[in-house]
Amino acid sequence: HLSASYMIADCPTTVHGLQSIFQEQEMTETVHDTEGHGYLATFIGKNGRLVILRVTAQGLLTIDLQCCEGDDIVQVENLLNTLEEKLRSLLHGNIKRVKRLPALTRGAAVDRYWPTADGRLVEYDIDRVVYDEDSAYQNIKIMHSQQFGNILILNGDVNLAESDLPYTQAIMGRGQENYAGKEVLILGGGDGGILAEAVKLNVYIDQMVIDGCRTHMRKACGSVLDNLKGECYQVLVEDCVPVLKKYVEEGKTFDYVINDLTAVPISTAPEEDSTWEFLQLILDLSIKVLRPTGKYFTQGNSANLTETLALYEEQLGRLSCPVDFSKEVVCVPSYMELWVFYTVWKK
After folding, report:
1. In whole angstroms, what separates CA 258 from the centre of its chain?
2. What are the catalytic residues (predicted)?
3. What Å distances lie between residue 186 and 73, 217, 244, 297, 324, CA to CA?
């Protein structure tokens, strides 16, 4: 992709200057009717290359070049270089900026593109898929990254990589808590990262997430998922809501509740998003099973989603009992963005 932003330019002269390059490439031109909104043309070459040339009324000229696997990359680079030089020559005094973007690979066997929580597209250095299965609840992928190790991706959301110890540390209190001899309830956490760090736990997770992570995320979970019951922990593969309600009825409480089920929803309209209702339910039940001196840890979302995080903090003020909270911003390596974590306790 090549784009140029300029102030005042003679559009026909610019287009004509670029057309000569495409003619030299023996590309067939088709001009499209834009109904007065700038200029749009496509050029198709014999080798399957496709070029889309667009000039907007606002002064933005874009060139998108698509080619197929097996095309001569050197020729493609030379064509882009020629177009960039021509643009600079044609727009010399009026040009503001010329920007060339890296190529996007579509339809590859391994998908390297995953969005951040705040909507930016990130290209990972993923080179292979090591696990890809559908459970009754979600699609589960584990993909290998040269930088981050194996990455767990659930329904298209990057959850945790083997490099992401900062995430686990943040959602457990950044090393400031003493878990020895304490009762800890983890909600979610199917990757086993939190379980590997804590002491006495009860956990509710997707069995297929356990199966995949047990084999392919051992740098994160160690050996704790090899058995669902150990000397000081038990993993329950069940729906957490009825179990939490049962604990409330029985009066069972915990020193710590760590909610690793889901991030705060991106939507800022709780009445239109059932995830907010689920989050509120989990929050309320979790606080009810928390001991008076206990703490509730959870992730928030991207630090850039300020409206979403503010809405979540409002929800904390609507629980069945009053609470205080603190928050911390942490860089999680594989997320490639800053992430907010919350600590909540009863007043």
Report:
1. 21
2. 260
3. 50, 18, 11, 9, 20
Tell me what percent of the residues of the chain surpass a pLDDT of 70: 91
The pLDDT, as a whole number, for residue 327 is 96
Task: Find out whether 148 and 161 touch, Cβ atoms under 8 Å.
Answer: yes
Report the pLDDT averaged over residues 123-143: 93
Question: Which element (helix H / strand E) includes 209?
Answer: helix 207-216
Residue 267 sits at φ, ψ, to 5 deg, of: -60, 140
Q: What is the pLDDT of residues 294-316, one digit of tens each?
A: 999 999 999 999 999 999 999 99
Cβ neighbours of residue 265 under 8 Å, at least 6 residues apart?
273, 275, 276, 279, 308
Bridge partners of 341, per DSSP, are 299, 328
H helix or E strand, kind and range, residue 79: helix 73-90
Q: Phi first, then psi: what are they for 75, rounded to 5°?
A: -65, -40
Residue 293: other Cβ atoms inside 10 A: 8
Average pLDDT of the residues in 110-115: 92
Instruction: Supply the mean pLDDT for the chain.
Output: 86
Three-state SS for 339? strand
pLDDT in tens, 188-200: 877 677 776 664 4
Residues labelled catalytic:
260
Q: What is the DSSP letter of 172?
A: T
DSSP bridge partners of 188:
260
Cα separation, 68 vs 56, in Å, equals 27
* The pLDDT of residue 267: 64
Distance CA 1, CA 193 (A): 40
Q: What is the pLDDT of residue 229?
A: 79
Phi, psi (5° rounding) for residue 237? -95, 80
Task: Please state, in angstroms and rounded to a whole number, the distance separating the CA atoms of residues 231 and 143.
Answer: 32
User: Under a CB-based contact definition with an 8 Å cutoff, are residues 119 and 157 in contact?
Assistant: no
